[in-house]
TrEMBL record:
The keyword S-adenosyl-L-methionine applies. Its cofactor is [4Fe-4S] cluster. PROSITE patterns: RADICAL_SAM (PS51918). [4Fe-4S] cluster binds at residues 66, 70, 73. It comes from Marinimicrobium koreense. This is Coproporphyrinogen-III oxidase. One of its GO terms (cellular component) is cytoplasm.
């Protein structure tokens, strides 16, 4: 049995020592390193590098609207019942696409497209059609169903008709934010979706030919118990999603105002939270799901599993991805792009975003161009977090360094992890052992040259 298919090892004493706070490494450098003085000229230079690369494109659209407030949510969102607010925002997104299309080589195919939020399905079917038509005017979308075109949905706020409509628009993947099926937990976080609602959507999605159905769950929510989470997991497993994410709820009410509506006394204790995770992992693996890494599971025949086994997996702002070859252009408030060796973030407040677009300016407010050292460490972290191994020979071929000498300080820091059986270090490279896979973020942190270990309040716990 390969490492990827082995059941995860759980060593409580080791977890207690290494379960610190740290980045999720959806980017490297991480967002705190993005610079406020990023200029229009730097943006244009990044676009030029992207055009010269000829890479296919990945498009992300941030649609921030929700009609109800989920108390746990840390997303950039606008909670409103005024549906009339959506179209003026979408019109700005269209103008942002036009501005980008003026400078990008848009003959490149769009291999990947994703709508996130917020709740993207907040917008009406007519508005969905309008936005997809606008996207097709500016970019070369694929019409043969070979691209990965995905959308996030709140199943409790989702109609069957809208799911059918999105399939007709070209979406072929759907991610459902289930979070928890227990009624008491749902009341505690103000998010509702029944098993029956989700089952109906799953049946329709399969009937309509959606290629992948993913579900998100959260552990550590108020009023959750080991028994209640087991019941939710049994119901989810019965629904049979192709992929499943089991996210850690990080209670940070000083950063996210909505979380102040959660009673801290209702949260599981740290010990119970870890027990919930342990039992959830065992339950999912016994049901046949493969642990991809960083909260993600998939069925053995899923493309994520195949990409991991073939060394093609990468990590980005949507999580794990099979499209490492794409340049990502992101649209909408707070959206983050990556192309031309550069991360670029849009304005975080919708008013500033819309004002910039109205003035004919790019919506960007921050960015950072990767330097040679960033590329090296980004490659190291990506290999470890996606594939649980690092070949020093490949690093030498790609970057011309002797890793044993170049990373001698980092390798010294890894020595306790070697002693604890988390990793194996040889002259040929690093292998993350079964006991270390859950703690992969902690391994990656050793190679993060920007990490300030004395100031971790903005990060969630590793587990």
């Amino acid at each position: 049995m390969s490492l990827y298919q082995e059941p995860l090892a759980w060593d409580q004493s080791v977890i207690d020592r290494y379960d610190l706070s740290g980045p999720r490494y959806t980017s490297y450098p991480t967002a705190p390193q993005f610079r406020d003085d990023f200029s229009r000229q730097q943006w244009l230079e990044a676009v030029a590098r992207s055009n010269r690369s000829g890479k296919p494109l990945s498009l992300y659209f941030h649609i921030p609207f929700c009609d109800t407030l989920c108390f746990y949510c840390a997303c950039n969102k606008i909670v409103t019942h005024k549906r009339s607010r959506a179209m003026p925002y979408l019109e700005r997104v269209d103008r942002e696409m036009a501005l980008q299309a003026e400078v990008f080589d848009t003959d490149r195919p769009v291999s990947q497209l994703h709508w996130g939020g917020g709740t993207p399905t907040y917008i009406s079917e007519d508005e969905m059609t309008w936005l997809m038509d606008a996207t097709r005017r500016h970019f070369q979308l694929l019409d043969n169903d070979e691209g990965e075109y995905s959308v996030e949905v709140h199943p409790g706020r989702m109609s069957v008709g809208k799911l059918v409509h999105m399939r007709q628009l070209g979406f072929n993947r759907v991610s459902m934010g289930v979070q928890d099926f227990n009624p008491e937990v749902q009341r505690a976080v103000n998010r509702y979706n029944s098993v029956e609602q989700v089952r109906e959507l799953v049946d329709v999605a399969r009937d309509q030919g959606y290629q992948s159905i993913s579900m998100d769950l959260i552990y550590g929510l108020p009023l959750q118990t080991r028994a209640s989470v087991k019941e939710t997991l049994d119901q989810v497993i019965d629904l049979g999603p192709d992929r499943l994410s089991l996210f850690n709820y990080a209670h940070l009410p000083h950063l996210f105002k909505s979380q102040r509506l959660i009673h801290e006394s209702d949260l599981p204790s740290p010990q119970d939270k870890l027990a919930i995770l342990h039992e959830a992992i065992e339950r999912l693996q016994s049901a046949g799901y493969v642990y991809i890494g960083m909260d993600h599971f998939a069925k053995p025949d899923d493309s994520l599993v195949k990409a991991q086994q073939e060394g093609r997996l990468q990590r980005n702002f949507q999580g794990y991805s099979t499209h490492a070859e794409c340049d990502l252009i992101a649209f909408g408030v707070s959206a983050i792009s990556y192309y031309g060796s550069t991360y670029i973030q849009n304005a975080k407040k919708v008013e500033e975003y819309q004002t910039r677009i109205d003035e004919g300016r790019p919506a960007l407010i921050k960015g950072v161009r990767l330097q040679p050292e960033d590329h090296l460490r980004r490659a190291v972290i990506n290999q470890l977090i996606c594939h649980f191994k690092l070949s020093f020979g490949q690093l030498y071929e790609r970057f011309g360094i002797n890793p044993n000498q170049y990373f001698r300080d980092e390798l010294a820091q890894l020595a306790p992890m070697v002693e604890d059986g988390l990793i194996e270090v040889t002259p040929a490279g690093i292998t993350v052992l079964n006991k270390g896979r859950l703690l992969i973020r902690r391994v990656c942190m050793v190679f993060d040259q920007y990490l300030d270990t004395g100031n971790q309040i903005r990060y969630s716990k590793v587990i």
